Amino acid sequence: MHYRIPDSEIERFLEEDVPYGDLTTMLLGIDGSEGEIVFKTREHTVVCCTEDAARLLEHCGVKVLFSLPSGTVVEQGTIILKAEGLAGQLHAGWKVALNLLEYASGIATRTAAIVNRAHAANPDVSIVTTRKSFPGTKKVAIKAIMAGGALPHRLGLSESILVFPHHTVFLGGLKPFLDKLGALKKRAPEQKVLVEAETPEEGLLIARSGADVVQVDKMSIATLSKLVLDIRASCPDVAISAAGGINIDNAAAYAATGIDIIVLSSVYFGKPSDISAIINHKPKSLLQ
Known about the structure:
This protein is an alpha/beta fold. It has two domains: 7-112 and 271-287, Quinolinate phosphoribosyl transferase, N-terminal domain (Aldehyde Oxidoreductase, domain 3, Alpha-Beta Complex); 123-268, TIM Barrel (Alpha-Beta Barrel), CATH 3.20.20. Helix content is 42%, strand content 21%. It contains twelve helices and 13 strands. The strands form three sheets. The chain has a seven-stranded parallel sheet. Strands 3-5-1-13 form a four-stranded antiparallel sheet, with helices on one face. Strand 10 (213-217), helix 10 (221-234) and strand 11 (239-243) form a beta-alpha-beta unit.
């Protein structure tokens, strides 16, 4: 079950595009004519936000006839959403609904491709995504990555503990921080503590100091492979995550190192899915 984008977001999307109604349909005098809209994929797609696009159309007064659930994998030519209503209503919602479907499904499709490649190399690796989504789009972005089989790395700063070098610089460096790691864990016993390492030596030191997760950034695959072996040998209960520059081309290689977690942002950026939206005129008698 995928979560709903809040109504407030749906209304904001519409307000951005149709703040004062549709001038074109009004001037053409077609806003009261009956019609239907059909959204169809033009390529292999993991669809996302179909439920929210449907609700967006309903906000415009349209009646939704059919909608596939988010996370459904479809091929070219598949109808994913269909609705009927007045031309003014259909035109008010069609582009916003299409944009939502294309951008969300693009993220979901890229995510699924990476998850599949990574799991082929390491079935136990977890794929998680960063906070690097475009501002204002987090709710859509997180729904999309989950539809593609990933999970969020951190939803925000308020619910997780991830210590970076730009934190420890205020504490005198990594070593003084690690000396106090036990006290930090006692202050937040329900939370796992993740600490980023800049070198393999730091990674091993962090693991041996009692961190729950050692995170590395932009570490080469060869160096990471050795670090994984070293940490597993002395601290088998410590999880290892890798971040920085991981994408569809190298995700499998990183997964094959034996790490527990792949952290990435690349799924947020790329081509939207190619989805068509066709509006047809249907005489009233054909809609009954």
